[in-house]
Q: What sequence folds into this?
């Protein structure tokens, strides 16, 4: 059974309704259809729901028949549930065996790195910079004429025009590039020593310049940052008692990677004569020295289980690149996902795809569309891999009361909340979305000039 709710509710009420939906799904075998319909109708008919928009579709996946629906074709903003659409479409088109392969090699005495759009490069021990440095040392190379960065698998549009502009330097709004590293973020840590506040960067690099405006305090630590008009220069401000930290998204991720590589090679005694350049590698004498592979299944897990936005965005652009033969773009991804949805019999009026993660509020999709995607996944050989990419209650969430696969929305957008769940004891599936229309109705696609941004962290 599939249930998909889109609503405008305070968070506590939204969670209560979601839990109700999951419980109904979990005990479906013991609940008659009339009872199920009555329970849902009670929820959507309450006085406190008069300004709430719903689109609900319930399907038995074993038969494909619709059990219950309410405004099934009405498209609303899916927020993080957009990742369900992106991740399954990509998995369906590319298969479970696909791998992101980032390659480093030598051409005309220059070190060239060819990006694959891998969103996890540099994550959790995936130190490709160190791997390249060691490969060069093993070959006895001590001098290079330059470093070439090839990120041409994706286009040059690194930030979606409809992402919240005031949040663009937060980790979840990081830029998307054909060559990403460390989530395209740097961790900023502040510590008090001898009455002074010291700032440190991880990874340590000269790529990002810090202007320290943090004061010592005896109260609670709270620090943040503003971007300046200078690229990759930020003012760190606030108060620090002992220690505090936050992550900040950087600009030009491919050059960030190139700078980290340049610095690593210098420390290893390898000199680079002409610095870093961006270009597409087409030289026939390119010789591979090392490469890094990331299975798409691993990216899928980070996308759905951890709700990692960059994973979803890279999958969308990769989908565009692999289906069009051109540089991966948001537009190409929209077309590829749209083609897939229409192949399932979903009308164009039921969806609008703007990005892969759901960070853009311009995304719209109906409960019928989500239901058909989940039904297609359920009936395919991809279902075990897709299902396991979601968090498991009792394992990931440490909730032993009910065994479910679940996807939830983080606090990126306070006006939108989403969740998707699948009861592991039966075929039941559940999904829910909350919209606050008073805010969403004011959101329009726009491109703005680069402003100053602020992020904060407390500890």
A:
């Amino acid at each position: 059974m599939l249930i998909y709710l889109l609503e405008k509710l305070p968070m506590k009420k939204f969670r209560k309704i979601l839990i109700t939906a999951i419980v109904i799904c979990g005990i479906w075998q013991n609940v008659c259809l009339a009872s199920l319909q009555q329970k849902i109708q009670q929820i959507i008919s309450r006085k406190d729901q008069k300004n709430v928009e719903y689109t609900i579709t319930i399907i038995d996946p074993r038969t494909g028949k619709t059990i219950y629906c309410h405004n099934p074709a009405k498209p609303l903003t899916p927020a993080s549930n957009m990742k369900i659409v992106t991740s399954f479409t990509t998995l369906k088109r590319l298969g479970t065996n696909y791998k992101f392969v980032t390659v480093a090699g030598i051409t005309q005495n220059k070190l060239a790195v060819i990006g694959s759009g891998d969103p996890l490069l540099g994550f959790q021990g995936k130190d490709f910079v160190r791997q390249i440095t060691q490969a060069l040392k093993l070959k006895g190379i001590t001098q290079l004429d330059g470093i070439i960065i090839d990120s041409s698998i994706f286009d040059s549009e690194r930030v979606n025009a409809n992402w919240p502009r005031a949040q663009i330097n937060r980790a979840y709004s990081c830029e998307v590039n054909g060559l990403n590293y460390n989530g395209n973020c740097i961790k900023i840590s502040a510590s008090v020593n001898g009455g002074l506040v010291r700032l440190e960067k991880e990874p340590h690099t000269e790529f990002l310049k810090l202007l320290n405006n943090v004061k010592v305090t005896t109260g609670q630590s709270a620090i943040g940052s503003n971007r300046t008009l200078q690229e990759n220069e930020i003012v760190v401000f606030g108060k620090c008692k002992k220690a505090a930290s936050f992550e900040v998204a950087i600009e030009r991720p491919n050059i960030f990677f190139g700078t980290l590589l340049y610095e690593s090679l210098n420390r290893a005694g390898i000199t680079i004569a002409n610095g870093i350049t961006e270009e597409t590698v087409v030289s026939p004498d390119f010789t591979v020295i090392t490469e890094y592979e990331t299975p798409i299944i691993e990216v899928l897990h980070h996308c759905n289980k951890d709700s990692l936005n960059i994973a979803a965005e890279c999958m969308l652009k990769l989908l565009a690149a692999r289906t069009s033969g051109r540089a991966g773009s948001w537009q190409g991804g929209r077309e590829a996902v749209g083609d897939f949805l229409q192949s399932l019999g979903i009308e164009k009026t039921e969806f609008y795809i703007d990005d892969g993660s759901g960070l853009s509020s311009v995304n719209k999709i109906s409960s019928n569309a989500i239901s058909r995607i989940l039904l297609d996944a359920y009936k395919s050989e991809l279902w075990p891999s897709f299902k396991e990419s979601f968090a498991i209650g009792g394992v990931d969430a440490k909730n032993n009361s009910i065994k479910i696969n679940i996807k939830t929305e983080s606090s990126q957008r306070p006006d939108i909340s989403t969740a998707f769940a699948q009861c592991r004891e039966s075929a039941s599936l559940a999904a829910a979305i909350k919209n606050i229309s008073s805010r969403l109705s004011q959101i329009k696609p726009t491109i703005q000039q680069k402003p100053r941004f602020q992020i904060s962290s407390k500890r």
